[in-house]
């Protein structure tokens, strides 16, 4: 009964003409004098592995029957084997002449199925690569649609072949194609101009590299904003194999979608600005009367949404870019956001003693050549997600998504990231983006420093605490549990 039920689903994609040859992929011997390119359609097999194009076979059949008259014994006059071999090298013996006679009698020659499958496989690879380059979404149903188009376009003689599940599985394994989660959607216009984006990216990097020698590495900066969820979680989890629905608990479902914005400033010498600019979403764009947690390494602002505004941008320049600790002559690389281009607004908050040159990355290029995007934000979010995960397990009642708790976590994380041990990590972001910054030696990422594999093998270093540790401080290198590290806001 079960087999009958399954057959109903299989009929939709079953290849009714399937043969074991459908699953064979191997190199086939071909004759160079008659094959223009390996894997041509409608090849004729004379002996196992010896394949000839249909057009050549038809030409040989026509030539073989071109002489008029008969011999005394009643047989038709035919070109000799030597003559046939001189004109058609694949005619090597009398058995192949007999093949030509059979094709002449039946009026057609059956194309070799395996060679047609090979041709379809190669053409399908070309078509799939083209579709991938164009950013198209592909599934097995689409592959069958492409196969049908290949068969029609090349007039391939192969009965009822649509590509069975097993044939497609073998094809995907052979050509290294597999299903993957879509990680990003881009507009059609943006994707269509990818070559132009790559050119613009390279041109900008080349231009910037010519300017870099005019500044000290400690005076070259990149700033960019990124949205962080109030409760950041990973998109995957371990669960029982075969589970169809995977439900996970968070303190607030809305906190997994509501965001705040962080705006770091990083230098090409590997240092991070000591202050992180943060914009929270607050009702009516105002903090409550009780205010918010004060953190010396955070510049905290708010708005009716977490999106930056022109006024907040001016605040960023006042309190971060033109902080007294900053160099008086600096180069700032930013993306194409319109507020970065408002020179009047920037000049209005620029101190008379400061000079700032701003370079804007062309639209669409930030993901390739902006250091913050290339190598920084991913590392920060990894740390935040890991801390959140530990908190969910060890201190489920701790409200990490609350305003002050969020700021406390950001302050702790930023303080750890400013450690000199992570300078090579920051430098590599610049190097990977294409700028003339020497590639640093092997280095550890923030997560590797903070959460070494054996971190849970020791107890918390805090006095009187015997809990399992979850993080290692980059400064004192002591290990602490979640409570003593984050909740008590570890400083050393």
UniProtKB/TrEMBL annotation:
Taxonomically, the superkingdom here is Eukaryota
A single GO molecular function term of this UniProt record = nucleic acid binding
InterPro entries reported for this sequence: DDE_SF_endonuclease_dom, Transposase_Tc5_C
- Tell me where in this chain the DDE-1 domain is found: 269-393
- What sequence ranges are listed for the domain Transposase Tc5 C-terminal? 430-492
The record ties this protein, via Pfam families, to: DDE_1, Transp_Tc5_C
Q: What is this protein's record name?
A: HTH CENPB-type domain-containing protein
What organism is the protein native to? Caenorhabditis remanei
């Amino acid at each position: 009964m079960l087999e009958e039920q399954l057959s109903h689903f299989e009929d939709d994609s079953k290849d009714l003409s399937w043969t074991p040859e459908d699953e064979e992929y191997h190199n086939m011997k071909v004759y160079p004098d008659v094959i223009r390119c390996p894997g041509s359609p409608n090849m004729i097999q004379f002996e196992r592995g010896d394949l000839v194009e249909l057009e050549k076979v038809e030409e040989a059949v026509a030539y073989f029957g071109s002489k008029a008259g008969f011999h005394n014994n009643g047989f038709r006059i035919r070109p000799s084997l030597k003559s046939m071999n001189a004109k058609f090298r694949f005619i090597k013996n009398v058995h192949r002449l007999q093949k030509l006679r059979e094709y002449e009698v039946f009026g057609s020659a059956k194309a070799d199925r395996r060679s047609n499958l090979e041709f379809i496989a190669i053409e399908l690879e070309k078509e799939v690569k083209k579709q991938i380059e164009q950013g198209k979404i592909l599934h097995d149903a689409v592959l069958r649609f492409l196969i049908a188009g290949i068969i029609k376009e090349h007039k391939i003689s192969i009965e009822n072949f649509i590509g069975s599940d097993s044939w497609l599985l073998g094809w995907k394994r052979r050509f290294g194609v597999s299903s993957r989660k879509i990680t990003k959607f881009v507009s059609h216009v943006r994707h269509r101009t990818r070559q132009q984006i790559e050119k613009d990216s390279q041109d900008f990097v080349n231009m910037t590299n010519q300017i870099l020698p005019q500044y000290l590495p400690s005076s070259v900066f990149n700033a960019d904003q990124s949205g962080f969820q109030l409760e950041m979680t990973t998109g995957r989890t371990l669960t029982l194999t075969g589970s169809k629905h995977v439900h996970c608990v968070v303190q607030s479902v809305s906190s997994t979608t509501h965001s705040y914005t962080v705006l770091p400033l990083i230098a090409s010498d590997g240092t991070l600005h000591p202050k992180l600019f943060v914009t929270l979403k607050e009702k009516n764009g105002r903090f409550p009367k009780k205010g918010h947690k004060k953190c010396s390494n955070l510049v905290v602002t708010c708005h009716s949404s977490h999106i930056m505004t022109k006024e907040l941008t001016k605040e960023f320049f006042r309190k971060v870019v033109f902080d007294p600790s900053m160099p008086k002559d600096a180069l700032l690389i930013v993306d194409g956001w319109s507020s970065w281009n408002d020179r009047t607004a920037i000049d209005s908050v620029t101190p008379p003693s400061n000079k700032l040159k701003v370079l804007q990355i062309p639209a669409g290029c930030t993901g390739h050549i902006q250091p913050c995007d290339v190598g920084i934000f991913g590392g920060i979010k990894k740390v935040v997600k890991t801390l959140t995960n530990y908190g969910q397990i060890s201190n489920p009642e701790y409200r990490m998504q609350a305003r002050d708790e969020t700021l406390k976590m950001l302050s702790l994380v930023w303080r750890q990231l400013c450690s000199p041990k992570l300078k090579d990590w920051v430098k590599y972001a610049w190097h990977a983006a294409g700028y003339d910054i020497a590639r640093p030696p092997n280095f550890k990422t923030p997560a590797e420093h903070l959460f070494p594999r054996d971190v849970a093998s020791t107890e918390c270093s805090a006095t009187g605490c015997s809990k399992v540790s979850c993080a290692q401080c980059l400064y004192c290198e002591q290990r602490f549990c979640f409570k003593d590290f984050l909740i008590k806001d570890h400083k050393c």
